[in-house]
């Protein structure tokens, strides 16, 4: 298995582990066990837990960007693509892992990785929306990712449809 494939395997295992058992179970031993590789194999790619954690955040961000890109291929505005992607991944294991990791170790380097995504999204949304709408959409999509489990599919579908109507007015 190539290095990139092995890293993908490790990230998938970490996401699965965190989404199912929470960030408190995030350890090099648990991730290597979940991935079915030796701890030494894991350490070859990620010499420290912090490097794995930063890589994992980048992996989740790349997942989000790919979903936005997939939505954009359906046509419509960037705003529609962004909201559609954020809604579509609400119950994904990647977003469950993100939500769990938010309350884990969050240092400036990790915040910087996420800030880069928010800056990119804000720039693209600002071409289509007034500033107050951009802030509102950011708050709503963050809420989708962190609090969606409190709502039924019907409630989420209804809120999503309403939001899409609002941005089209």
UniProtKB/TrEMBL annotation:
PROSITE patterns in alphabetical order: HTH_TETR_2
Keyword DNA-binding in annotation: yes
Record domain HTH tetR-type: where: 4-64
SUPFAM superfamilies: Homeodomain-like
Pfam families: TetR_N (PF00440)
Gene Ontology terms for molecular function: DNA binding
Domain of life assignment: Bacteria
DNA-binding region: 27-46
Coiled coil stretches, renumbered: none
Assigned keywords, A-Z: DNA-binding, Repressor
Protein name: Transcriptional regulator, TetR family
